[in-house]
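Our consortium's second objective concerns turning raw sequence data into structural hypotheses that experimental partners can test. To show how far this objective has progressed, the report includes one record in full. It was chosen at random from the queue rather than selected for favorable results. The single chain below, 82 residues long, was entered without modification.
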Amino acid sequence: MKDFVNTYRTDANEAKRNYYMQKLNFDVAGTMGRKDLHKMLYRYLEGMQWVYFYYYKGAQHWRWYYPYHYAPMISDLGSNIV
C-alpha cells in the first residue's frame, strides 16, 4: 500500500493504471480498458442505488449483484460517468 501511495503522489494516472491492471486486468490507457472501466463504474453506481433503495424503500429485488471483486477508485466516479 505504501508503494501505491508514493506512486500516486508522483503520478496519479500511473498509479490508477497499475491498480486497474493488477486488480482487474483493465489497461485503462487503451480504448478497451476505458470501456471496461466505464462498465465497472456504471455497475458500481447501480450498486450504490440498490443500497439506497434497500435502506430507504426496502429491497426492490434480490437478483442484482456487483460482478467485480474490487471497487473503482473514487476519483474515477465523477470524471468517467456520462
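The partners drew two points from this record. The first helix runs from residue 2 to 10. DSSP finds four helices and no strands in the chain. Both points have been shared with the crystallography group to help prioritize constructs.
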